[in-house]
Design goal:
By secondary structure, this protein is of the alpha+beta class. 29% of the residues lie in helices and 28% in strands. It is globular. One of its GO terms (molecular function) is acyltransferase activity, transferring groups other than amino-acyl groups.
């Protein structure tokens, strides 16, 4: 897959159904939150949050993006300002697993998010069993900084990205 065939665009209200499909798919959420499909209330709360456009300098401000190929949604990227970093996350539709979509989404995120929020440290939380995501991050310069039974924390400093 070429990176030019994948487009990251801002999340909009019309993407709600796609997000709900991902959030209710046990394969997608296996390593996210409690590892179980989300209920409608949690899905709706996340969508409301995604559609807010708080000042990007505020802790908690986030921007979501939908990854699409040939006009079809294939994944979602999240970015949220934390105290000391911008936390990123990404979900790929199972129909597109194993095709390089996650890596391409991450590559584009590593360019776009620092431009959007200002050059800053990036972080990502990964469930310890999610070896594919851990490999995607470390291949791009992220380092494992904290390991727990529930979540590994990876960081990419501005000098690295």
């Amino acid at each position: 897959m070429t990176s030019s065939s994948l487009l990251l665009r801002p999340f909009s209200g019309t993407d709600s159904e796609f997000f709900a499909t991902l959030a209710s798919d046990e394969r997608v959420v296996r390593f996210i939150g409690y590892g179980k499909p989300w209920n409608q209330q949690d899905i709706d709360a996340c969508i409301v949050s995604a559609l807010q456009h708080d000042d990007l300098n505020q802790v908690g401000a986030s921007r979501w993006f939908v990854a699409s190929m040939a006009g079809q949604a294939v994944g979602v990227v999240f970015s949220t300002r934390q105290e000391n970093s911008i936390e990123i996350g990404y979900w790929v539709s199972p129909a597109h697993w194993g095709r390089g979509v996650g890596g391409t989404m991450l590559d584009q995120t590593l360019v776009m998010v620092p431009e959007l929020f200002g050059l800053t440290t990036l972080s990502a939380g990964v469930a310890p069993g999610n070896t594919i995501s851990a490999k995607l991050l470390t291949k791009r310069g992220f380092t494992l900084t904290v390991h727990t039974d529930q979540l590994d924390h990876y960081v990419l400093s501005p000098q690295s990205n």
